[in-house]
Amino acid sequence: MTENTTQGTVELDAPWITQSDLPVTKYQIIDENGEYDADAVPDLDTQQFLDLYRWMLVEKRYAERMINLQRRGEMGTVGSSRGHEASIVGSGYALADDDYLLAMGRETSAMLMKGVSLRDILLFWRGIEDAQKYLAEQNCMIGISVGGYLPVVTGIGWGMNITDTDAVVTAHFGDGATSTGAFHEAVNFAGVLDAPAIFYCQNNQWAISTPFEKQTNADSIAQRAVGYGVHGIRVDGNDVLAVYHAMSEARELARQGNPVLFESLTYRTEGHSTSDDPTRYRDGEEVDQWKNRDPIERYESFLQSEGLWEEVDKQAMVEEVDAEFDAAIEAANDYGPRDVEELFAYLYEEMPPALESQLHELERSLRELDDLEEYIVRRPKG
Ligand SMILES: Cc1ncc(C[n+]2csc(CCOP(=O)(O)OP(=O)(O)O)c2C)c(N)n1
Ligand SMILES: [Mg+2]
After folding, report:
1. Given pLDDT bands bounded at 50, 70 and 90, which one contains residue 379?
2. pLDDT in tens, 38-85
3. Which ligand is nearest to the CA of 208?
4. Any residues with Cβ below 6 Å from ligand 1, and which?
5. Catalytic residue positions?
6. Best substitution site from 82, 146, 149, 210 to test ligand 1's pocket, by max atoms within 8 Å of Cβ?
7. In 3D, which of 148, 146, 188, 195 has the Cα closest to residue 169?
8. Separation CA 260–CA 257 (nearest Å)
9. What are the φ and ψ backbone dihedral angles of 231, each rounded to 5 degrees?
10. Which CATH class is domain 19-335?
11. Fewest Cβ atoms closer than 10 Å to its Cβ: which of 27, 52, 144, 243?
């Protein structure tokens, strides 16, 4: 056998394994032009087809509104999920209420579908520590450490095996997380433990400014499943029906003790977060290409072909989801400011002396600031 390598060609006799032994196909139901094979469409009723659409609008609208709040100084740094709507909604819709979801932050609608309170999600993004506790009570967590929470998924799955529940645990994370050691340990050990775990990677092809090809020499993330001895799949993440269908199967596999590595191939069409300027590292043409593959428009054309579009009153839907957001932000405002002590509260049952002295230091500084208040000349806003 003659093998082309990066440095030239080599003659090989031994049975080498290469990436070409494992071509990974992308699973799709509705293609980029809105064409689809009617036999491949999942068996959902009209209401469910419309629900998927509504949830995608929720995802889009809430991401916009959170960014607006951040711009007004009413929210901490938040990320945009623009472009990810099908990937988030299709995966969330396949989950059951008692499944555990570890989100990476861009999955507001998937959390809401499970019944998680929007107020608590908003509190989280305001940096209120209590929020993580409230989310955990709702079988949910937002993991800010890239890759760091993936071993927790394996642990929760292991616990589910011990307690013999019927639920599964899923983590959403990005392509960047697959470049961490924690990812490898988590998926590998989930395989060993037959954990009911779904590792749901939203491969949006960028980890902030690092492109996919600078993170790995592998052609796909899904193919790595074979090395861990688990099931793997690569799905068109801009096709909500393909994501939903594959995720429903992933859930069944996981429930029976087969962990899944799920790669949802998508693209973030806006900045990584409110503190990012993607024009500094991304080619505008690439972004435009992906804007043309918009997941919501693709699904609209499916609904039109199926004769379901007449049932959608988009304006009324947007007004309704806006009203829900307004109510949640009001509830978050009512929660009020928190005590500084909270910043130190949840790491240890008893605060160690080093943290205690940092807390006192902070309190002292804040008191000094209060004393200085009358000398501070405030600049007018604007
Ligand atoms: C352990 C850790 N290292 C670095 C960061 C800073 N950081 C935040 S998001 C991010 C990139 C994440 O990229 P990816 O996993 O592809 O997710 P995406 O944001 O593209 O959805 C980095 C490096 C972090 N939050 N945690
Ligand atoms: Mg990414």
Report:
1. very low
2. 999 999 999 999 999 999 999 999 999 999 999 998 888 999 999 999
3. 1
4. 106, 144-146, 148, 173-177, 202, 204, 206-208, 272
5. 268, 272, 281
6. 146
7. 195
8. 10
9. -75, 140
10. alpha beta
11. 144
